[in-house]
Amino acid sequence: MSHQRRIDIKGKQALAWKYLNDKTTTEVLYGGGAGGGKSYLGVMWHMERRIHYPGSRGMIGRGKIADTEQSTLQTLFLAAKDLGYQQGLHFKYNGQKHIINWANGSQTILKDLFQYPSDPEFISLGSTEYTDAFIDEVTEITEKAVELVSTRIRWKLKEFGLTPKLLMTCNPSPGWVKDVWIEHHGKPVILPPHRKFVRALVTDNPDKEFVESYRQQLLRMRSDYDRARLLEGDWNAEATTTNPFAHQFSMEHHVSEKAIFRPDIPITISVDFNINPFAVTFAHAFQGLDGKYKDHTFDEADIDDGSLPAMIDLIRQRYGKYLHAATLTGDAMGASRDISQRDNASYYIQLARGLGLSDHQVQVPANPTHRNSRSDVNYLLHQAREEGSQFEVLFHPVNAKESIRDLRSVRCDNKGKIIKAQRLDPSQRADYLDTIRYRINLKWKKIIMEHQQTK
Asked: Which domains, from first to last, does the chain contain?
C-alpha cells in the first residue's frame, strides 16, 4: 500500500506537522478559530501514520461516537479520496465496531470519550494500546479522559522508532483546556517542552477560496461573542446577554468538575417535555456532612421527537442500578392525562412505569411563574458565590454544558418572563434551564424561604 498522492501541508498545519514528527513533543493542541483546517490536519496525519507504519493502530476520539462518525470520519473519507484511496479497496469501515481496517494491517479505532457518570473511570476504554491518538474538539471531553488516552499510546512505538504523539484540536472555550494550555487566572500558561500549541484561524487555512467565503460567513454572525471566539480565536471572549435570566450565574463560582455522580447520594431527575428536544438533567440535591446545601448537576441529555420510550431507555442505561432512590420531577404539564394511552396515563406515569419507580418517587409541584422562579434561582446562585455560604451550586463543565449555555444565554423580557419566541435560536429554547428551575422549585424553595427569613 503506497501513497496515491503527496500529502500537501502548508502554513500553520506544517508547523503542527513538524511537532507531530519530532522526538521531543508528545502533545500538540491545534486550533483557535473555526475553519483553520483542524479536522483535515488531524485525519491527514492519522492516515499518514497508518499508511507509513503497517500494523500500527491509531485512535480518533471525540465526545460522542455519533459526532465522530457524522463529522470527523466524513472528513477522513474526503481526505482519503484526495489521496486516491478507495473505501472497500484500500480500507474498510466496520460501522458496528467503529473500526477502519487498512489493507496493510493498520487500524483506525473510533472512540467515545464522553465521561458518562456511570463510568467515571472510563472502563469502557478497555486496555487497547495505540500508536498515536487524535482527539477532535477536545473541549467536549474532560481532562481525565485526555490523561487516560495518553497513557494508552504505546503500541509498537519501539518497533517503529516513534515518540508517543497525541494531537488535539478545538475552538476557544472556557474550561480546563484554556486553564492548562492557554491562560490560567489571567496569566499566560508556560508550556513544558513536550507540549506545543499552534494557534490557527480561518485565515491560516491553505484553501484560500474557502477562507474568503467562510470568513464572510463568520463576519455575518450576530453574536459578538461567537465572532470573537470563532473568527478571531479569542480565548477571553465573554458572552454578554441583555437581561439574563440567571444574572447571578458565574463560570468561576458555579462550574466545577466536583459536580460528579456519586452512587451513595440519590439522583434527582428533572425533565422538560418539549417535543424537540425532550430534555433531562441529573443532579444531586442534598445536605452534605459539612452542613452545606448542595446542588450538583452532573449529567444531562436530550431526546429528539419527544420519545418517552427512548428517554426511558437512556435513563435506564445510565442509572438503572440507582433508580430505587431517585426522585423524578419536572414540567407539571407532563402530569396531564395522555389520551393516546388506554388508561390515559400521564407522561410521568409512563416514565415511572418504564423506570420502575414508585408513586412517592414522582414529585411534581405546580410550575413556578418565571418571575418567582428567577428570584429563587438567582438567590441560590448568589448565596453560593458568598464565602462561607451554606449553599453550593455546581455544574460539570463538560457533562452539563447545555445547562451552562442556558444559564449564560437565556434572557427575560421587562416583566421577568423567559423569552422563548424563536426555537431555532438556542438562547430562546431554555429547555435545560427549565429542568433546573423545576428542580430548584421542588428541592430548594422551602430552604430558600427559611434562609431569607433568617437574614
From this structure: 11-230 (3.40.50.300), 251-454 (3.30.420.240)
